[in-house]
Amino acid sequence: xxxxxxxSRLNIFKEYVFSRLDKEVAxxxxxNRKVLSFGSGNxxxxxxxxxLEKYCQEIKKNNAxxxxxxxxxxxxxxxxINWFKKRFSVSLEKDELxxxxxxxxxxxxxxxxxxxxxxxxxxxxxxxxxxxxxxxMVGAKPIFYNLNKNNNFRISLTQLENKVTKKTKFIWMNxxxxxxxxxxxxxxLKKIVEFARKHNLLVVYDNAYSEISFDDFTAPSILxxxxxxxxxxxxxxxxxxxxxxxxxxxxxxxxxxIIAALAKVKSQMDSGLSTPLQNLGAYALDNFDKSxxxxxxxxYKNRRDIIAGYLKKxxxxxxxxxxxxxxxxxxxxxxxxxxxxxxxxxxxxxILLTPGTAFGKNGEGFVRVSFCxxxxxxxxxxx
Length: 383
Description:
Layout: H1 17-29, E1 36-37, H2 49-59, H3 74-88, E2 97-100, H4 103-114, E3 120-125, H5 133-137, E4 141-146, H6 157-163, E5 168-174, H7 186-198, E6 202-206, E7 232-237, H8 238-242, E8 250-254, H9 256-269, H10 275-286, H11 290-313, E9 326-330, H12 338-349, E10 351-352, E11 354-355, E12 366-370, H13 378-381
Parallel strand pairs: 1-10, 3-4, 3-5, 5-6, 6-7
Antiparallel strand pairs: 2-8, 7-8, 9-12, 11-12
Helix pairs in contact: 2-10, 3-10, 4-9
């Protein structure tokens, strides 16, 4: 049929950046030139074989094929409760947690649970693109707060004071940050929690990269701040922590009312995280392999440092991140824009970086470089 009319909401947001970049890569590779992609942060360190064996056992069990239910099963609940207590000294109740189909599950569905048409939500710029578009889909208004080099890409509470209105409902926060790699301290989180309480704001804290850190840095949880659970939730990811990216597993913890609201939305959107995956998650949390995790961190750190050396050869300037999977780099001053620089590099050298503008207007002049990349043949691309 030629007269199909799609929803008008499709016109209020752009195609997801990595979908668009994949098409550009395909054009280059059609000319028999292989692209070295530093684009998406696909956790490529092989997952622990013990975890894979456990998953195989779980999917062979008699009840594995049944619907899992809409919440956490007892194993998953208790294991996540135990892990949070051990890792962050944070106590959780069973109604303060929910398994997710990947962290993006919560990112995309929380606006449906928390925002009405006309509400405002504070979003970092630069920040994860998926924070803003779902808000637009429900008729809410993203209000961007600026993260910049002068403030080491941290939040300015003075700036936030000027952004909050009577319509402001909640604030998105993400540390360790995608894309900038910026980190935050417990003392800084305490001030942010105090600010949110003062203005009666909810806080959604994306902590997906909490277990990917370097150079003796350890990421905190916002729930470590006394009273944070009164109005805060935190998102976590098995993808980053255990290299389970393709399994689509995550969690959200914190305020029970927000958790219940999200669970209600999700009950209409999916049928829950499968029992084998919940049991795998529980097993991984209960049997956290420190040796394997140390190897994973060492691999990413080694690649971070090697890639950094090559990036300097093409004129990029940056600070090495203490956490996350990305280098946030300033492009040469001679370049007109991030987008043009990225496309020129792709076509001339078959190297793909992500333009900083994919993460907001403040990303102009920057690129994001993932170090989840096989760099065995990196020399030939940077000659």
